[in-house]
Amino acid sequence: MPTAEDDARYEIAHALTIEAGTLALAHFRNLEALVIEEKKSGQDVVSIADREVEDLIRNRISDAFPDDGFLGEETGLGEGASGYRWVVDPIDGTSCFLHGYREWCVSVALMKGDETIIGLVYQPTVDEFFTARKGSGAFLNGKPIRVDARATIANGLLGLGANGRVPIRSITCFAEVLLEAGGMFIRSGSGALMLTHVACGRLAGYYEPHINAWDCLAALCLIREAGGWTADFPGPLGLLAGGKVAGAAPQISGELEALIERATARAAI
């Protein structure tokens, strides 16, 4: 059962995620003024908006809960002593953001020990706010959501994530085996949003060979609370290393895992 400490953190996180999204949206509406940096490659970029949004979230949490840990995409890991850790992506889908494409979001997760107990994903461009608390269900703008209980690999859409951290064949081979099975995929540019769309039934499932914790922990909580299945994350290398991510409506989880295994074997040839 949630404790009073959990409740206090949820209340602040709920309001703060909306405030952070509002700040990000203001930058989105004034893209020509943004200072843009390149991290490692042409697709791995960061702007002043990313930094300002993360600073807002981190500073507010630090003021309210100074002993909590914090892991942010832009500012890294700060250890805490309380047993709570916040995991934040200030703008997931930065490339989309910077190109004026609306598929980006603010993602905020709260861990208690090794469990994610709160997942919040806000897409301010369409004013969709997804919220979940462990054991309490998942919601979109306050209304309950569920994964699609009727979806199959053949009749549903799967989200597919891609990035430069993994071999190209790990992506293309999964697309091949999925198409061979009669399925179809989409990619929006935001892993957090595509996972969240599994939770509300828009997508049947999602797979990405490697993802960072800040991109997915909130949305994985949403999927589980919406009645869905998620693969173990982050895997043996730990939270900072990230790992493979998969989530789906439960009736296709076995078939999705089989497709991932088939694609992995094909990519290794």
Automatic annotation (TrEMBL):
Chemical reaction(s) catalysed: a myo-inositol phosphate + H2O = myo-inositol + phosphate
EC number: 3.1.3.25
UniProt keyword list: Hydrolase, Magnesium, Metal-binding
Protein name: Inositol-1-monophosphatase
Sequence positions that bind Mg(2+): 73, 89, 91-92, 215
Organism of derivation: Rhizobium daejeonense
Broad EC category: hydrolase
Domain of life: Bacteria
Names of the cofactor(s): Mg(2+)
Family: Belongs to the inositol monophosphatase superfamily.
Hydrolase in keyword set: yes
A biological process from GO: signal transduction
Entry GO MF terms: inositol monophosphate 1-phosphatase activity; metal ion binding
Stored InterPro entries: IMPase (IPR033942), Inositol_monoP_metal-BS (IPR020583), Inositol_monophosphatase-like (IPR000760)
